[in-house]
Here is the input.
Amino acid sequence: MKSMMQRMVVVWQKGLNNNMTCRSQSRALNTLKDNYSCQILKSPPLASLDLPDVWTHSSTHYDPPSTQNCTNEQTAAVIDGKSIAEEIRLRIASEVSRMKKSIGQVPGLAVILVGQRKDSQTYVRNKIKACEEAGIKSVMTELPDDCTEDEVLCALSSFNENPSVHGILVQLPLPQHFNEEKILNVVSLEKDVDGFHPLNMGNLAMRGREPLFIPCTPKGCIELLFRSGIEIMGKKAVVIGRSNIVGLPTSLLLQRHHATVSIVHAFTKNPEQITCEADIVVTAVGVPNLVRGSWLKPGAVVIDVGTYPVEDPSCEHGYRLIGDVCYEEAIRVVSAITPVPGGVGPMTIAMLLFNTLHSAKRAYDFT
Ligand SMILES: Nc1nc2c(c(=O)[nH]1)N[C@@H](CN(C=O)c1ccc(C(=O)N[C@@H](CCC(=O)O)C(=O)O)cc1)CN2
Here is the structure.
């Protein structure tokens, strides 16, 4: 696993020395977000975003490249995902309490954890604690590394049939011998709070379709942009990484929000040149400090999903997390950035609670 990561770093670094041309083309277009200010989330439902592709003169208007220079000062606002997530979780808790008072039911989340990965154990523990704090009931099935696929499928079927379970998730990654596709296909579409079922993902990809759930981390990224007052429509966005969990659905979601999206991955030639044209950069590869200050357009917005543990005896647990972005360089170039930790991570859990509440509301027809 580690040597694979090292190989990836080498592949990624190949592009570092290429020359680049920074260009910007941005359009300030109004979004629908103000209409949704009384909802838990500020981002609107996808169906309300569907617009016909009508090309007009202004669509083809060219803005000259930005002349803004880099300074040695911090220019970036830090997007505080931890406090935004806390605010969302409080609103979810109050909705759960309203639901309980009104119909005597609360949302239920079921988690399946296979194996002994320390990071997965931490994430699952945090998810269950967050459920507790919001008044959401949670159940967990823990299975050993060497369990069979049938055991996982059996746990899934029982949660699929349990009416008090409204959300089901299988913590990823699964141990190598599992067929992840086969397992995720079995999660009931109506309880797929991770949004990883191929039908939910397919509906996210298709115009005019509404997935029942949007994957938590991508949804968290969009919510951070909305709550920070950052326009998506008409912007150039670059998503670095194309994983099924983050990169791919984030690129689809940004597209649904009318950004012009490029995807940069390990085989992309000149990733720096492509990235430095972006108004919005979302990076999710887990390669520490991949994105240098020189990759970023002055004034861009950076959402750093990467988390990579590095040894640090001065930290409480002996390690600290660093992101995909070279933070010290980026804060001197960009207009806003998420920190690691405390940026996107806490939003992933807040969105999971949101999806679980949403699922329970749908199941009980509770508005
Ligand atoms: N079934 C799923 N598996 C995985 C998902 C997912 O959404 N569904 N995403 C990631 C892991 N993940 C949730 O499962 C997750 C990652 C990070 C955080 C988080 O809060 N990070 C904190 C730091 C926490 C720490 O100190 O370790 C932060 O960035 O501030 C929450 C959830 C892969 N698997």
In short: Residues 122-123, 169-172, 194, 216-217, 245, 307, 321, 340-342, 345-346, 348-349 surround LMY7XDAE (CB under 6 Å).
